[in-house]
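NYN domain-containing protein, Clostridium scindens. Tokens?
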Amino acid sequence: MDEQCYALLIDADNVSAKYIKPILTELSKYGVITYKRIYGDWTSTQNSSWKEELLTNSITPIQQFSYTQGKNATDSAMIIDAMDILYTNDVDGFCIVSSDSDFTRLVSRIRESGKMVIGMGENKTPEPFRKACDKFTILENLLNEQEPGSPKTEDTQDTLGREKIEIEDAIIKMIIENQDSNKATGLGEVGSRLVSLYPDFDVRSYGYNMLSKFLEEFTRIQLVKHGNIVSVALREDWGMKEDIDGYVVYIVKKAGKDGIELSTLGNKVYEKYKDFKISDYGYAQLNQYVKSIEHIKVEQVGTILKAKYIK
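Tokens:
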């Protein structure tokens, strides 16, 4: 398969030169960088640190004078160039590097044309720009890979804690959806769907370099390995499940050949096991859980669902 081609456009006014090597390394994972342009007022001392990096990394500087105080001419120049490149149709995607939300509409417009957009910016980058991208990478994470051990602030740790709960809930929902369709949930699928839900999701934000290591931290899910295939499943209390399964078999068998209404069976189970939740075992409905138990089948008799014992 041919490599994907990307246009790299950098907003020098809103990104530090210290990130250039991590930016190029990260983008090279996606494909070949065919355009490398950086926008700013090169007569300003504010961008002096970038000048040393331009020749070294073969980046084309685009001069944009600040004609009016408080107005960002760089944004306009980047947007015009991005649209020109888009219309040439000779790239598969764009990498927009900025911590400024002014490029949110540009990103949306590029994606409307079927091109992938990778956003990169500092942790301060506003949420609208992050979510507009197919994938958003926090620049501090890239720098920390080269300079490990940088401490996270207390506010950042609290935010990550809240996000982890949200992420775990999202993964559990994926697993239950797939189980309803009798599908396993692969590790790769979890990674792809998390990025679709949260474009700025990156395990490096949590101090990991592999998704599998990150998921091992959660208490409600587990990794299951079958040869070289790794899937993600709900972490079950197997002792309790065996106990509940045995109780269900006992009740259904006792009911005889006519079986027992599912609603009655459910009431008996919930009465005996107060903390029982079918979602903890990967099911959305009680009949799906009961069907999974050996020697039990669920049949519809008229408008009523019944559980029956089979040898």
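The chain has twelve helices and eleven strands.
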